[in-house]
TrEMBL record:
KW Membrane (keyword) present: yes
Keyword field contains Transport: yes
Keywords: Membrane, Repeat, Transmembrane, Transmembrane helix, Transport
Family note: Belongs to the MIP/aquaporin (TC 1.A.8) family.
Organism the protein comes from: Lyophyllum shimeji (Hon-shimeji)
Name this protein carries in UniProt: MIP aquaporin (TC 1.A.8) family protein
Subcellular location: Membrane
NCBIfam families associated with the record: MIP (TIGR00861)
Gene3D superfamilies with a match to the protein in the record: Glycerol uptake facilitator protein
GO MF: glycerol channel activity; water channel activity
Amino acid sequence: MTPLSCDGTATRSQRWSDAMRKEKEHTHTEHVEFPDVHDHVTQFPNTWARYRALIREPVAEFLGVCMLIIFGAGVDCQVVLSTNPNVASSPKGSYLSISFGWAIGTAIGVWVSGGISGGHINPAVTLALATYRNFPWKKVPIYIISQVLGGIMGAALVYWDYFHAIDIYEGGPGVRTLKTASLFSTYALDYMTNVSCFFSEFLCTAILMIVVFAMTDKRNCPPPSGLNPLLLFILILGIGACLGMETAYAINPARDLGPRLLTAMVGYGKAVFTYRHQYWLWCPIMAPILGGLAGGAFYDAFLFTGQESIFNKPNAAARQRHLHAASEQRPHAPSGAEAV
C-alpha cells in the first residue's frame, strides 16, 4: 500500500517509485536479432554460379527445344510405329494425337525456358525479334546454335527410346529409310510441288509470328500473367490440325535441322539431305525464316505502335523535337517472368 501525504495523496517520489515497479512487473525482455551489417546478397555465391550466368540463356534455349522434340518426335514415333502389329497390339493414336503432341512440346519448351531466355525455341522467332524488336544481335548466333543442339539431343533421346520399334517397323536391325526418318524431321507429301511446299511453311510461320508479336503487345490483347505457353499450345494445335498435313509444319528451322542431323548420324545417310534437291534447306529452314520476317513486318507495319519496332523509329523531324513512340512491348518476348 502506497503511503499518503498529509492531504491524503501520494507524494511525487512515491508515485514515481510505484510507476517504475509496475513497469518492471509488466515488461518482458524479447530477444531481437539485428541483421549483420556485413551480410550481403550476391548473384555469384561460388565459382560455378559465375559460369552458370554466362551459359544460362543458351542452356534454357537448348532445354526448351529439347523438350519440344521429345514430345513432338515422341508422338510421331508412337502413332506411326504402333500401326505395325509387331510393335503394338493396336494403333496408339491418330493425326490429332500428333497435333496435340507438338502443341504440348511447344508449351512445355516455352515454360521451362521463358523466364530465363525468353522462350524463343525457334531461330525464326529469334531472327524476327532481333530484326523488329531490339533483341540483341550479338545473342542471335549462340541462341540459334543452342536451339539446333537442343533439337539434336531431343531427337537422340527419342531415337534411343524407340530404337527397337524402328528396327521392327523397318523390317530388320539397322535398316533405315526415309519412312522412319520422317518421324524426326519433315518431308512433304508426294503431290506437293516445291513452290507449294515453300508457301505452306512460309504461311504457317507468318501466322505464328503474327500471334507471337500480338501476345507481347501491351496495347493489343496480351494473355494474363503465366499464360503465354497456353496460348502457344492453342496456336500450334491449330496450325497442326488445320495446315500441317502437307509438309508436316516445321515452322521452326531448329525443329527440323537438329533431328535431321541426328538421323544422318545414326545411319540414315545423305538421303535426308538430297531429298527433293536440298529440300531441307529451302523449305524447313529458309521458308520459316522468311515467313517469320514477313509476319513480323506485317504486324509491326500495320498494328504495333511501340518504339521498339523499326517501323516506329522517329524520323529527322521527330528527333529534332525529341519525340519518340511509347514502349509497348511486354518484356522478355515471347515469354518470361515479366511477360507471362
